[in-house]
Design brief:
The protein has 505 residues and is mainly alpha-helical. It is built from 22 helices and 5 strands. Its EC number is 2.4.1.-.
Length: 505
């Protein structure tokens, strides 16, 4: 087992570097970028009123000039739960309704995403080196970097998600340790056919439930990961009991471990989810807040408390928005199907200022016109390597029964495959921010296999050279694309040199 103190030191150092890198010129661009126009303003409304309000038509321009009091009096219909907006509001409370204010908590959670990924990778691989590789690679991923510098919801969702999985893996190890202690204290060689102790209270599993609830309270699609990892967690328990000598643990273990697993994951996640709605419940004027009072004849209003009935009605409206005819017939120039996400088929252009004249706005004099652009593009060499590593991880898990790879495989697939049922509506590449921590984990673990064991001699030295060169190339690749991640100034020729495929334009 690697040194715990050394492991936490590595996590701290990489996290500090990632934080400072993401904090650099956080206030640029000085405007609301892409969906910041919704979430930054929604967060400010929630901060001051507890629910989302409408804003004046020209609010975006006035906000960047310092005139932030542009809220109306009517409630605004929103299509995502409140967790991410509550967190964005923390930054706005600290630094005001400014670009740095509405983006600051994204930096914090973008850094925590790297920390959580390193902790998860270390526990799976039992290697501080592999964890460090995962942290460094995610630090220099273009998608994770840009999403950590914008007031969008997805970075919060991804952080809670990875932290939830890390807690569940920690619970797996704790359960195995408790099972071993049970045998040791009784002087038993194995369970001799019995199922072993009833381990109802599992604090790490309960913590995972809270974090899954927070992730779902940011965006609903994390519910797929909760379902997938609940099943995987139960499979871990059944496998541990079988290894300890239990006879036919599948059916009996499904009840013995399945019931407490369900109770400490699903109801706990639901409670955490509902807690994030308290600001809305505490108001009288939020969207649909008076729905039950206005529809007393409905079954919801007759059988549920009015506040809860109104909340259910609100959720029904949100679901209808996401699946209804309006969204299914909408189009967007940057929409991207999930089949292309892992290979960077269609990144998202968030913001651009075109045709900047030479000698103005940082454009070098005497040259061609320039462009300032911000694009959510994963670092190509990282993403292509991670896609290959995901395939390798599936083969290693299923073919060679290396159970360590079950976590990144299940995590990546649970946050990727469900999107295929929604391809009749506009989808965007940046949704993959919930996939990349798992593919990076798989990649780091594959690089760990290339490096080999500590006593590997010349083979380990060769593997370390190969892995080190790859990591160095990824860092250089990130540096090359730095201007399009940070709204940097580029001549048109420089920008075209970074558009490696026509689908990126």
């Amino acid at each position: 087992m690697p040194s715990v103190r050394q492991g936490w030191l590595i996590v701290a150092v990489v996290s500090v570097v990632a934080f400072l890198l993401r904090l650099w010129h956080l206030g640029d661009p000085v405007r609301l970028v892409f969906d910041e126009t919704y979430y930054a303003k929604d967060a400010w409304s929630v901060l001051h009123h507890g629910y989302e309000l409408t804003w004046s038509d020209n609010a975006n321009d006035l906000i960047v000039r310092g005139a932030v009091d542009q809220m109306g009096t009517a409630a605004e219909f929103v299509v995502h739960p409140p967790m991410g907006k509550l967190l964005i509001a923390v930054g706005e409370w600290m630094f005001g309704m400014t670009p740095s204010g509405w983006r600051f908590m994204a930096v914090v959670f973008g850094t925590l995403l790297i920390s959580a990924t390193m902790v998860l990778t270390r526990r799976l691989s039992r290697s501080n080196l592999v964890a460090a590789i995962a942290g460094i690679l995610l630090t220099v991923d273009g998608l994770a970097f840009t999403m950590s510098r914008l007031a969008l919801l997805d970075i919060f969702q991804a952080t809670f998600l990875v932290a939830a999985v890390a807690c569940l893996v920690r619970d797996r190890d704790a359960m195995r340790a408790r099972l071993a202690t049970h045998l040791e204290t009784r002087g038993l060689a194995d369970l001799d056919g019995s199922l072993g102790p009833l381990l109802w209270w599992r604090p790490w599993r309960a913590a995972s439930g809270v974090l899954f609830g927070c992730s779902i309270a940011t965006k609903w699609d994390s519910v797929y990961a909760l379902a997938a990892f609940a099943i995987l967690s139960l499979a871990w328990d059944i496998g541990a009991r079988r290894l300890a000598g239990a006879r036919n643990p599948l059916l009996r273990g499904a009840l013995r471990d399945g019931i407490p697993a369900f109770l400490q994951l699903v109801p706990v996640a639901l409670a955490a989810y509902l807690t994030t709605w308290i600001p809305w419940l505490a108001t009288a004027s939020g969207w649909d807040r008076q729905w039950a009072a206005e529809h007393p004849e409905t079954a919801l209003a007759r059988h549920l408390p009015r506040a809860l009935a109104s909340l259910v009605a609100f959720h029904r409206e949100i679901y209808q928005f996401h699946t209804g005819s309006y969204i299914n017939h909408a189009t967007h120039p940057y929409q991207s199907g999930p089949w292309g996400w892992l290979i960077l088929m269609r990144p998202l252009g968030l913001d651009a200022v075109n045709d900047i004249a030479p000698g103005t706005d940082g454009c070098p004099p005497g040259t061609e016109n320039c462009i300032r652009v911000m694009t959510t593009l994963g670092t190509p060499l990282l993403w292509w390597g991670a896609a290959a590593a995901l395939v390798a991880a599936i083969l290693l898990w299923i073919g060679l029964r290396d159970q360590r790879f079950s976590v990144p495989v299940v995590g990546a697939l649970a946050m990727w495959l469900p999107w295929y049922q929604y391809t009749d509506r506009p989808l965007f590449y940046f949704y993959a921010i919930c996939i990349v921590p798992f593919t990076v984990t798989a990649l780091a673990m594959c690089l760990g296999r290339i490096i080999g064991p500590v006593q590997g001699g010349w083979r380990r030295r060769l593997g370390a050279i190969v892995a080190g060169l790859y990591v160095a190339l990824v860092i250089l690749n990130f540096a090359y694309f730095w201007p399009i991640y940070t709204d940097g100034i580029l001549t048109w020729s420089q920008w075209w040199a970074r558009m490696w495929f026509t689908s990126w334009v």
